[in-house]
Amino acid sequence: MESALTARDRVGVQDFVLLENYNSEATFIENLRRRFGENLIYTYIGSVLVSVNPYKDLEIYSKTQMERYRGVSFYEISPHIYALSDNTYRAMRTERKDQCILISGESGAGKTEASKKILLYYAVTCPTNDHMATLGECLLQSNPVLEAFGNAKTLKNDNSSRFGKYMDVQFDFRGAPVGGHIQNFLLEKTRVVHQNQGERNFHVFYQLLDGGDDDLLKALDLQRNPQNYNYLVKGNCPRLSSVSDKNNWKVVMKALSVIGFTEEERVLNIIASVLHLGNTQFGEGEEGETYITSETQLNLTAKLLGVDGSALREALTHKKLTAKGEEMISPLNFEQAVSARDALAKSVYGRTFTWLVQKINQSLTVKVHSKGSSVIGLLDIYGFEVLQHNSFEQFCINYCNEKLQQLFIELTLRSEQEEYETEGIAWETVQYFDNKIICDLIEEKHKGIISILNEECLRPGETCDVSFLEKLEDTLGGHPHFVTHKLANGKTRRIMSREEFRLLHYAGEVNYNMTFMNAFICLKRIAATQFKNSLMKLKEILMSKEPSYVRCIKPNDAKQPERFDEVLVRHQVKYLGLMENLRVRRAGFAYRRRFEAFLQRYKPLCPETWPNWHGRLADGVSTLVNHLGYKEEEYKLGRSKIFIRFPKTLFATEDALEA
Ligand code: ATP
Ligand code: MG
Q1: Are 73 and 6 in contact (CB under 8 A)?
Q2: Measured between alpha carbons, how far is 488 from 495 in angstroms, rounded to an integer?
Q3: Which residues contact 466 (CB under 8 A, 6 or more apart)?
Q4: pLDDT, tens only, 50-64
Q5: Which helix (H) or strand (E) holds 331?
Q6: Is 107 a catalytic residue?
Q7: Can you give the pTM of this predicted structure?
Q8: Atom of ligand 1 nearest to the CA of 55
Q9: C-alpha 114 to ligand 1 mean position (Å)
C-alpha cells in the first residue's frame, strides 16, 4: 500500500481542499500545472475527481493498476479514475444504493476516455455472472459501435462525441454486471449534410468506404473515394492521420457481432442511401418548378431505403398542404427541394442512430432477474460550448450544462449537509452562486425562453426571428441574465448585433444568433420541448442516485502532450464551476477522516496510542490530538470521523510523522 495518506503527493496537493489559499484561482491552477508536469493527471476536490487530458498514453491503466485500487480506501492511494470507480462500486455494494458518475468537460477534455476506463474497470474486476459471462464484453463493445455512428472528427477532437450519453450498468446481488441500458441525447444531425472546414461527417461513412470489401461496396453501388460524395466533402478533410478508418471498420463489425446484432445489412443500406441522397441533384424548370437531374442516385436511394422511387421523387420536389380540409400538392422551389433532401438525410440518419441504440439495449437487457440488484449510471455529456455563431444546438447544450451544474450544487450541498448531520456537527451556511435563476429563465412555464419559443412557432409568419426577439425582450427585459442589443448599454451594445440575444450562463456569456436560431426554431420546436423533458427525466434519474463526479480538463488546443495552456485551463476551471465546488467543500473543514484511519496513521505520534489503542476510537483520537496540541477551533469530532478545519494542522501532523 502507498505510504502517503492523502496530504501531499510528489508535487502539489492531491486534494484541492488541502490548499491553504483555497479561494485563489491562481493557486488552484498552479497545483494542477505542477501535477500535470509530473504526469499526475488526477487530483481530488473532496470526492470529485479532476482529470487533465495527458494526450499521451500513460502506463497507469493496466490490470496491475486495477488491482492496486481494488478495495482500497479512496484517500489512501493517489487519485485515479480507478479509485473513483472502485469507491462508487463499493458504495453501491455496501450501502445498497444506486450510484451515478457524472463526467463533464469541454470537447476533447477526455470524458469518453474516462467513461471507457470506468467500464473497463468494472468489466475486469467485478465477478462475472455465469449466465451472463459476455455481458461485460457487450457493454465494452457498445462503445465502438456508438462511436462509429455518433462520433466525428471536429477541430477540437478527432473523435468527438456528437451526442450525449447516459448509460446504466446493472449489477446483481453478488456484484456481477448483469445488464445495461443506454439513453442518447440530441445527436448533432446537421453534420450528416454539412461539415465545417477541417471537420468530417460521422466516422461510419468513411469506415464503410475504406474498410468494406469490394463486393459489399458493389452491392451498395458505392465508390471507395469519399471525395465522390457531396455529404463527405464539405469539410475538405476525408482522411484522418490519427486513426485508420479501415481498421476501425473491422473493430465495428466485430463489435456488432459480439453484441449479437443481426441487421448489418439494413444499417449499411441506410448509410449508403444517405450518401446517394446527398448526390441527388436538382434542376430548375422554366416556371420555377424543380426536378431531379440525377435519376440514378434517386433510384439507388429509393432501392436501398426500400421505398418507391416515384414517391421519393414526389416527396423531394413537392409539398403537401392542407387548406380548409382539402389536400393540395404544390411544387417546391430549388432551395426548398435542397432542404427537403437534407432534412430527409438528417432524419433518416438520426432515426437509424436511435434504432441502433435500441438494438444495443436489447442485447444489454437483463435476462436473468435477480433480487437486490443495483445500478451505476454513467453520464458522458457535452460540455459548455461557445462558438463564433451559437445556434439552437449550443443553446440546448448549454442549457443542459446549466441543469447539471444546478444538480451538482444541489447534490454537493445536500451530501455535505447530510454528512454534518450524521456526524452530529452543526451545519455552517455556505455562500454560493445558485444558478436556478438561469435554469428558470430558460425553462419556466409561460415565461421561460423555451415556452416563448413554442408560442412563437404556433404563429405563422416570415418574421419569426424578429418577433421572437421582441417577445423575449418584452417578457424578459428586466432579467439580470438576459441581454439584447436594445436592452444593453454602452460597452456591451457595441459588441452585440441586433439579431442576437445574450445569456449570462453560470459559466460565462454566450450570444445566440437569431438568424441561426430561426432556421431551427420551427423545425425543432418539438425538439426543444422534448429535450427539456428528457433533461427533466435525466435529472430525476440522477437525483435518485448517489452521485460522483469526474471533471475533465483539456490542457491545450493543439491536442499535444506536455503542453499546459494556463489561459485555456482557467476558462475551464470557471466553466466547470470548480472554484465554487471547492468553496462549498471547504466551507467548514478541509479534511475529514474516519477515526480508525486517522488513528492508524498517526498513532506513533503519541505514547498512549502507540502501538495500539484499546479503548473507544473517539477517545483514542481525542487523546492523540490533545497530545499533538490541536486547539479547540482547529478540529471537531463527529460520530465516526474527525474534521480538521485547516490544512496546516494536518500538514504539521504529517511533518511530525516524517521527522
Ligand atoms: P467530446 O466532447 O468531443 O466527445 P471528450 O471529452 O469525450 O470530447 P475524448 O474523446 O475522451 O474527449 O478525448 C479526446 C482524446 O484525448 C482521445 O481521443 C485521446 O487521444 C486523448 N485522451 C483523453 N483522455 C486520455 C487519457 N486518460 N490518456 C491518454 N489520452 C487521453
Ligand atoms: Mg466524447
Answers
A1: no
A2: 10
A3: 514
A4: 999 999 999 999 999
A5: strand 326-331
A6: yes
A7: 0.88
A8: 30
A9: 8
